[in-house]
Amino acid sequence: MRVGLVCPYSLTIPGGVQGQVMGLARSLRRMGVEARVLAPCDGPPPDESVTPLGNSLPTATNGSVAPLAPDPPAQLRTIRVVRDEHFDVFHLHEPIAPGPTNTVAVLKSAPLLGTFHRAGHSTAYQYLRPLVQWVANRLDHRCAVSENARRLAADQLGGRYELVFNGVELTAPSAEPVKSSHPTIFFVGRHEPRKGLSTLINALEHLPPEIRLWVGGDGPETSRLKKRTADDPRVEWLGRISDLDKQARLRGADVFCAPSLFGESFGVVLLEAMAARTPIVASDLDAYAVVARPERDALLCPPGDAVALAIALQRVLFDENIAGSLVESGLDRARQFSMDRLASRYGEIYTDLAAGRRIRTPSLRVG
Q: How would you classify the pairing of strands 50-52 and 141-144?
């Protein structure tokens, strides 16, 4: 079977959906599915399974900036690929996002599966409802990666959605851990208000001087927050890092911190930390609590509460029993969300769609 995985976001810019698409493609190929990724790329594509569709344009969305490709040249490239290559099924990730996913839906040269990732608020759903509903109605089957994502799509678009999950690659290539001689916290993500990096920096005021903080990523808040910490030797700014660098830091850190305030759909990065055997402190968001069970797989704190965050970080950093328990439970939890399990379910859906059958009862369950 030949499946086209269509991603609206540039694969050369780190992001949750991009990581899911590439990881899913690798798992599918191990299963014997011929999976090809169609997506924008601002530079060389990450591997030979990718068909690049052109550069992206930064687009404000959901309190962030997304690297989308809604321009005519990208759509013309998409049309050529769809017409020149013969796919049995197209799997559209974020099918409503402007760009290649919309174009493939309009052309509809093969059955369409759509996976909805976004949670929170969507300007496109609000102001372009007739258009996005028309696109959604082109889909032959719809999935959502979380209850929040399902609720947003169902409220705005109607229709039925199979609840799946985002996966983590338990067998993904990993780098040697980067170690520190000090107790170390690791943060990685876009530096924007909803990710809560400012709260984490505030929490440093309540942590002992031997603590170190690694900050990965960049964004609109980087300059301001760097100035705030200019005189604090505990903070190391890593800039934008590769997936291998992220793995090396995850494996070397004493705790991973995800202090997001809102707008999260699914805690993929928490699963990555669990798979790397790193204990987690995160905000008590619905999207995180579904993945990381409180006090079992992670310590969860009220969003925006720097004092509570500092207390939870100290518990993990200075109590080996707590850290060890979180790691053991977290690794078991990550196995439940393995990318191979997710790929197996999607493979069942592809087979039914390609054969023109009704989608069989889902076999995917996570406790």
A: unpaired
For residue 172, pLDDT beyond 90: no
Instruction: Give the separation between CA 284 and CA 294, rounded to whole angstroms.
Output: 8
pTM: 0.83
Helices 268-275 & 16-30 angle (0-180, nearest 10): 60
Does 184-336 match 2-167+338-354 at the fold level?
Answer: yes
- The three-state secondary structure class of 65 is strand
Cα(251)–Cα(233) distance, integer angstroms: 22
Q: What is the largest CA-CA distance in the chain?
A: 63
CB neighbours of residue 46 within 10 Å:
17
| Lowest-pLDDT choice from 125-134, 155-164, 205-214, 221-230 | 125-134
Strand-strand pairing, 89-93 and 112-116:
parallel
Domain assignments of the chain as residue spans, ordered by start: 2-167+338-354, 184-336
- CA 100, CA 104: separation in Å to the nearest integer? 6
Instruction: Report the length, in residues, of the chain.
Output: 367
Residue 122 pLDDT:
63
Running DSSP on this structure, what letter comes out for residue 54? -
Q: Is the pLDDT of residue 40 over 70?
A: yes
**pLDDT given for residue 128 in this prediction:** 67
Q: Which residue has the tokens 């990523």?
A: 217
Q: Radius of gyration over alpha carbons of the chain, in Å?
A: 20
What distance in Å separates the CA atoms of residue 334 and residue 2, rounded to the nearest whole number? 29
Q: Has domain 184-336 been given CATH number 3.40.720.10?
A: no
pLDDT digits (tens, 9 = 90+) for 67-108: 999 999 999 999 999 999 999 999 999 999 999 999 999 999
Per CATH, the architecture of 2-167+338-354 is what?
3-Layer(aba) Sandwich (3.40)
- Quote the Cα angle for 219-98-146, to 5°: 75
With contact defined as beta carbons under 8 Å apart, do 17 and 364 qualify? Answer: no
3-class DSSP state of 287: helix
Average pLDDT, the chain: 93
Residue type, 50: V
Give me the phi and psi of 298, to 5 degrees please: -165, 160
How many other C-beta atoms are found inside a 10 Å radius of the C-beta of residue 206?
Answer: 14
